[in-house]
NAD(P)/FAD-dependent oxidoreductase (Cohnella nanjingensis), 382 residues
Amino acid sequence: MGTPYDAIILGAGIAGSGMAGALAARGWRTLLLDRGTFPKHKACGEFLSPESKISLAWLGFDPSLGVLRPAVIDQVRLIAAGGARMAFPLPDSALGLSRFALDEALRASAADKGAEIRSGVTVHGISRVPEGYLVEATGGGGREMLCGRAAIGAWGRQRRVELTGGRQAAGDAWQIGRKTQLEGLEATTAVELYLFAGGYAGVAPVEDGRVNVAAVLNARLARTLDLRGSEWLRSVAALHPALADRLSGGRPVPGTDQSASPVRPTREPVAWGIVPHVGDAAIVVPPLCGDGMAMALRSVERCAPLADDYLRGAVSLAGWREAYERALRRDFRAPARWGSLLQAALTRPLVSSALLRLGARAPAAAVRLFQATRPSGAISPG
């Protein structure tokens, strides 16, 4: 097994890479594993909310610096298929940045801080041992047993029973997500949400003048549409006249078309199974709220200091678990519930049209509802 690591992180997405960087920066011998290879595009709205920027600053990472060149977003627009619409400004600027660029930058940041990163590694199981955790994995060097004093699950929304200890979160009905990037469209400073029966499409600017288009469809609607390749764009645009106009003339960027299925928002965070969970492994928020990346990063803010305390001997494993579960319930329970209610309402045409007309007349109320879907209690950077 070799010398035990201080921490083994399972999954190198936003949360896993952020966690690896946070622990490596504190001087811990950290191993970050992922079964995929990088860089790669992912099905995502690619919207970094103002809350995300706070969490990234806490990690010592500023996506607006260097070569990433994110788009700046300062407004939210909602457009119902029947024509009702409203807009409101964001309380602080957001960013549009592809997962292709962001994930790779976070991994590079973790490596710069001293984390060891291995891709193309499949984890088969986790078990408790006197030294901490034993991780059974297969990679380029064959099957091996890795030992860590701590292990953290960052494997995303797909909860494998052998890694979670059987803990599954109660959730809403499953959905399917699709995304692609387009060239040749006007890149505004708004994130635009086009609402229709059974789903919605989000349009947002990202780096290099491109526009990201992401759709979330419920299972019933998805079964009626042609979702093969780039055909999904035409199928979804046909559901919403304003969306069809917005996408007219756009050219798909090769290699950016991605899907995610099933997408099943969870109603309660599952902070811990065999090991603590961060990111989508802990909670999958309703995609329409646009705060999935912020929630993932917030979970790292809550988990990393507790992991550091545990590794220093300042808190027991039970104490870490109790404090972390309490923090995620406090931060995520209300936003997840409000988000589920809001997404359910806005994907029903009559309800969404009425809500948008009401919001246009009372924008302050709309902003308060938007803020109810966001986590509270940010940790100050530093």
